[in-house]
Design goal:
The protein has about 180 residues and is of the alpha+beta class. The chain has five helices and seven strands; from the N terminus they run βααβββαβαββα. Helix 2 crosses helix 5.
Length: about 180
């Protein structure tokens, strides 16, 4: 299992970006222009998940000194249920940083199962009201919940939320 960083528009980008669009609602995805724009940011990772050198999914995340924010995470549908998602999270945990992610509120079986997966991987639900901006112009702010692998203090949450807003809105202004 390994992660391969995508840093430019090439065949790997096309494969990864296609899976990205297939697995997330429009308001939670960047258009191609803004996605290519943020690839230049040194803190941003758009990684292919390779299992035995076979494309198995994508993970996008922002890595800072104090934490890693997992922005998008998708395993190919034919590869799910084989422990690959847990292995990817284990790779990130080896960086010895707090992991933070957002999920949709756990109100139906699908979103509850997603929460349960992350809980089995050591994440806990945080009690912050979280309404980050949409990734595309013309969409309403999202309503999401936060999970992390450890304590998320108010101060760190404020830093995290500010960065989420900047990372979402700045590319929209630049492209």
């Amino acid at each position: 299992m390994k992660l391969k960083r995508i840093i430019e528009k090439n065949e790997n980008f096309k494969i990864g970006y296609s899976l990205y669009l297939e697995n997330f609602p429009m308001d939670q995805t960047r258009n191609e222009e803004t996605q290519l724009f943020i690839l230049k940011d040194k803190t941003y990772h758009f990684d292919m998940i390779l299992n035995k050198n076979e494309f198995s999914g994508i993970i996008t995340y922002w890595e800072y000194d104090e934490y890693i924010y997992i922005e998008h995470f998708a395993i190919c549908s034919d590869k799910r249920g084989k422990g690959l998602g847990s292995q990817v999270l284990s790779l990130l945990k080896q960086k010895n940083k707090l992991l933070i992610l957002e999920i949709e509120p756990p109100i139906c079986n699908y979103t509850k199962s997603r929460q349960a997966f992350y809980e089995r991987s050591g994440f806990v639900l945080q009690q912050y009201k979280h309404t980050p901006p949409a990734y595309r112009k013309g969409y309403a702010n999202q309503v999401l919940v936060i999970m992390s692998t450890g304590e998320l203090t108010d101060k760190l949450y404020q830093t995290y939320f500010k960065r989420v807003c900047e990372n979402t809105l700045n590319p929209l202004k630049s492209c």
